[in-house]
């Protein structure tokens, strides 16, 4: 990988560009830099005296805990590994947003103002991030999303980054792969219209299906907390579709897919990032068979360090990691790269250097983050066979 060192002139020019492009929602408040967070040496030789505090906001309880619990573990594991390297010592300050916007906002507020962290990773859901990232942007605190995949996240401002494969990219991989392996011609699209991520993915699904020349013969919505999907599924049954493209969080996916199978709808289910979860597969039981998922990580990928990551994670937590753990783990390494680039853990320096990451060799494969805050990495497409994810 290569990190461009930051220069004040370049930062001012980049900020001017972002403002003129309408990408910055609000000017951040001025941030005093703490000289104890500026070290000596660079890269592997960087030494910073003060402990670098990194906030982590994940949904450890309630609806999105299926992802948040793995995220906290993946991030914690990476922080332990990074602390063992030496030179820079990290402290992870973990907050549970309980899968609510209110708690997510409170967690960001505490980390920004009370703990005075250098950067924040999370939150788990895009639904919270649209609010919390606006707050981080106003406060001038870099925030790095690890599972916030909806359209428009990096555009919130120049302090906002993501190391989470956009759902647009995941679906642009999973739908064509499903078309190729299943010969899709006519599909049903079902989506949760009440969640930012699933509603944004719906637009992407329609675009990808149009590009692929696949016809949408059923187009139905529901809401996050719904439990009865018989009205939508009756239409799917009558249409006898080749597949159901589903945009939902696991809370709705599990009853919906089980009800579909009870109605003897045999059509394969295709989705994106939210489905790349062993919790979902476990909860679906036999109804998970044939689920096609697009996402950012696979246990089967032979990426640098992946086998060691899986072994170390299992040794520590006594369970297999998932995509959410892998992305949070990677985020800690990306932050470390950004901090070591100028050996500076102040908020401004992290913000300048996170957007300069080029092809960092990670367990997700080569990963880049550009100045707009957007990530570039290769998606993977998997299918569930006998209750296990395998590469399609
Ligand atoms: C988002 C997501 C969710 C599936 C993360 C758990 O991708 O909210 O953007």
Features:
alpha/beta; Rossmann fold; five-stranded parallel sheet; 15 strands; 42% helix; elongated; binds (3S)-3-methyl-2-oxopentanoic acid
Uncertain runs are 1-27
Overall body shape: elongated
- Could you say which small molecules are bound to this protein? (3S)-3-methyl-2-oxopentanoic acid
The main sheet comes to: 7 strands, mixed
The CA-CA distance between the termini, in Å, is 29 Å
Tell me the fraction of residues in β-strands, as a range. Answer: 15-25%
The CATH class of the largest domain is identified as Alpha Beta
At the fourth level of CATH, the homologous superfamily of the largest domain is: Response regulator
User: Which sequence of strands runs across the widest sheet?
Assistant: 7-6-8-9-10-14-15
Q: Mean pLDDT score, rounded?
A: 93
CATH architecture grouping of the largest domain: 3-Layer(aba) Sandwich
Radius of gyration: 21 Å
Q: Count the E strands.
A: 15
Q: How many distinct helices? A: 12
Overall helicity: 40-55%
């Amino acid at each position: 990988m290569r990190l461009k060192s930051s220069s004040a002139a370049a930062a001012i020019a980049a900020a001017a560009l972002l403002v003129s492009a309408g990408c910055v929602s609000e000017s951040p408040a001025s941030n005093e830099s703490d000289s104890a967070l500026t070290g000596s040496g660079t890269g592997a030789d960087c030494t910073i005296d003060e402990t670098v505090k990194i906030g982590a906001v994940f949904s450890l309880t309630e609806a999105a805990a299926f992802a948040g619990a793995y995220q906290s573990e993946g991030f914690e594991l990476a922080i332990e590994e990074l602390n063992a390297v030496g030179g820079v010592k990290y402290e992870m300050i973990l907050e549970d947003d309980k899968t609510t916007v209110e708690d997510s906002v409170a967690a960001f507020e505490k980390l920004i103002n009370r703990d005075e962290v250098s950067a924040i990773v999370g939150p788990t859901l895009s639904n919270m991030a649209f609010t919390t990232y606006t707050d981080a942007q106003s406060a001038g605190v870099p925030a790095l999303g690890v599972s916030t995949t909806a359209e428009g996240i990096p555009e919130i401002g120049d302090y906002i980054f993501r190391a989470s494969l956009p759902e647009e990219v995941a679906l642009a991989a999973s739908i064509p792969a499903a078309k190729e392996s299943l010969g899709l011609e006519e599909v049903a699209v079902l989506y949760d219209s009440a969640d930012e991520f699933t509603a944004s993915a719906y637009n992407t699904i329609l675009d990808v299906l149009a590009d692929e020349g696949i016809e949408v013969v059923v187009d139905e919505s529901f809401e996050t907390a719904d439990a009865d999907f018989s009205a939508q599924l009756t239409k799917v049954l009558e249409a006898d579709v080749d597949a159901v493209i589903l945009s939902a969080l696991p809370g709705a996916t599990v009853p919906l897919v089980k009800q579909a199978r009870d109605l003897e709808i045999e059509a394969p289910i295709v989705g994106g990032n939210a489905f790349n979860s062993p919790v979902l597969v476990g909860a679906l039981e036999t109804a998970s068979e044939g689920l096609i998922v697009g996402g950012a990580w696979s246990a089967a990928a032979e990426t640098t360090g992946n086998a060691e990551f899986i072994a170390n994670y299992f040794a520590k937590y006594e369970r297999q990691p998932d995509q959410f753990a892998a992305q949070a783990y990677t985020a800690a390494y990306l932050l470390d790269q950004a901090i070591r680039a100028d050996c500076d853990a102040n908020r401004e320096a992290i913000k300048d250097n996170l957007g300069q990451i080029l092809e960092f060799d990670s367990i997700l494969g080569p990963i880049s983050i550009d100045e707009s805050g957007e990530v570039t990495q290769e998606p993977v497409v998997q299918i569930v066979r006998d209750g296990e994810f395998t590469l399609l």
